[in-house]
Amino acid sequence: MRKEPTPAERLLWQRLRNRQLDGLKFRRQVPLGPYIADFACNGPAIIIECDGGQHADSHYDAKRDAWFAEEGYRVFRFWNGEILDNVEGVLEPVLRGLGRPR
Questions:
Q1: Distance from C-alpha of 54 to C-alpha of 34, rounded to nearest angstrom
Q2: Are 1 and 29 in contact (CB under 8 A)?
Q3: Which helix (H) or strand (E) holds 38?
Q4: Is residue 23 part of a domain?
Q5: 99 within a domain of the structure (yes/no)
Q6: Which domain does 36 fall in, by range?
Q7: CA–CA gap between residue 33 and residue 67 (Å, rounded)
Q8: Residue 29 domain-assigned?
Q9: Residue 21 sits in a domain of what CATH number?
Q10: Exposed e or buried b for every residue in 72-102, given b needs 16+ CB within 10 A?
């Protein structure tokens, strides 16, 4: 696990922690099977991933996402730049995906 979060992860965590996003309980750097999710919520089962350039066209990420989906998680991936430029806008698709528009 990374000891030092990226600026995008830090910013996103400030919006997810303490049930700030529609009362959902998120944890960060969560071990799930053979993987570690950046942010995970168990009820409902959501994973949010913050991606840098190393994730472009990543077969490894596709494999991870498929495993998470098999376990019942819905995965949302966002580029670090998206998070840094518009963190509130990034959270909108998560809420919409849960049928909870802001």
A1: 20
A2: yes
A3: strand 35-42
A4: yes
A5: no
A6: 7-81
A7: 9
A8: yes
A9: 3.40.960.10
A10: ebbbeebbbeebbeebeebbeebeeeeeeee
Distances from the Cα of 44 to the Cα of 31, 33, 89, angstroms: 17, 18, 20
> Has residue 25 been placed in a domain?
yes
- Phi, psi at 90, each rounded to 5°: -70, -35
Write the pLDDT tens digit of every residue in 8-59: 999 999 999 999 999 999 999 999 999 999 999 998 999 999 988 664 566 8
Here the tokens at position 83 are 């998070």
Note the helical H segments in the chain: 7-16, 59-70, 80-85, 87-97
Domain count along the chain: 1
| Preceding peptide of 44 cis, ω within 30° | yes
- What tens digit of pLDDT does each residue of 75-102 get? 999 999 999 999 999 999 999 888 776 5
